[in-house]
Specification:
The complex is a heterodimer of chains A (110) and B (115). Chain A has no helices and 11 strands. With 110 residues, chain A is an all-beta fold. Chain B is 0% helix and 50% strand. In chain B, a hairpin with a 3-residue loop joins strand 4 and strand 5. Classes of the chains: A mainly beta (110), B mainly beta (115). At the A-B interface, strand 5, strand 9 and strand 10 of A face strand 4 and strand 5 of B.
């Protein structure tokens, strides 16, 4: 059983479309991070959110932490082929543990 | 900047063999961890360490041992490999062991196949 559930697990859309990826849990997390992973590489941090209700923007990417600190979303506006990759959410769990969701594999078609 | 370095990048083992995956970081991070990545499962935490001489179990520790004799190195040992341990293994480090408000830096991964 995953502590963090991501949806959808796979998403394939056309360039220029908008999309939202969700990361949900029944547990409260001290922080929530989003990573992006390219094939053959390790994940790279995109953003960290720590306050319930917090919204952060990174160019065309908008990240939100739920008010109760149990869920998060990643919204991409006007998706581009360069956004293709595996997106992973991760939550600070207890002391010194960072647990990951199963990932959303995103494909943006030209 | 080397960052987090993992060796080997690829390894094939037979069931029952033992091996060690090496991980070294040059960022003077106190926190280091090992994850395994399987299709559809994301990354699962195997073991972690908050400093030299201190290690603890993660979500899936069975079949793996770790030690932390220096700040720089955090090897992962498979004592008797099983096919279920076929996976991609990632080592990661961070300067923030407490609340994860800082970045977790990952190595490039070690792909292990157990026949």
């Amino acid at each position: 059983t995953q502590l963090l559930e991501q949806s959808p697990q796979f998403l394939s859309i056309q360039e220029g479309e908008n999309l939202t990826v969700y990361c949900n849990s029944s547990s409260v997390f001290s922080s929530l991070q989003w990573y992006r992973q390219e094939p053959g590489e390790g994940p790279v941090l995109l953003v960290t959110v720590v306050t319930g209700g917090e919204v952060k923007k990174l160019k065309r990417l908008t990240f939100q932490f739920g008010d109760a600190r149990k869920d998060s979303s990643l919204h991409i506006t006007a998706a581009q082929p360069g956004d293709t990759g595996l997106y992973l959410c991760a939550g600070g769990w207890g002391a010194q543990k960072l647990v990951f969701g199963q990932g959303t594999r995103l494909t943006i078609n030209p | 900047n080397a960052g987090v370095t993992q060796t080997p990048k690829f390894q094939v083992l037979k069931t029952g063999q033992s091996m060690t995956l090496q991980c070294a970081q040059d960022m003077n991070h106190e926190y280091m961890s090992w994850y395994r990545q399987d299709p559809g499962m994301g990354l699962r935490l195997i073991h972690y360490s908050v400093g030299a001489g201190i290690t603890d179990q993660g979500e899936v520790p069975n079949g793996y041992n770790v030690s932390r004799s220096t700040t720089e190195d955090f090897p992962l040992r498979l004592l008797s490999a099983a096919p279920s341990q076929t996976s991609v293994y990632f080592c990661a480090s961070s300067y923030d062991p407490g609340q994860f408000t800082g970045e977790l830096f990952f190595g490039e991964g070690s792909r292990l196949t157990v026949l």
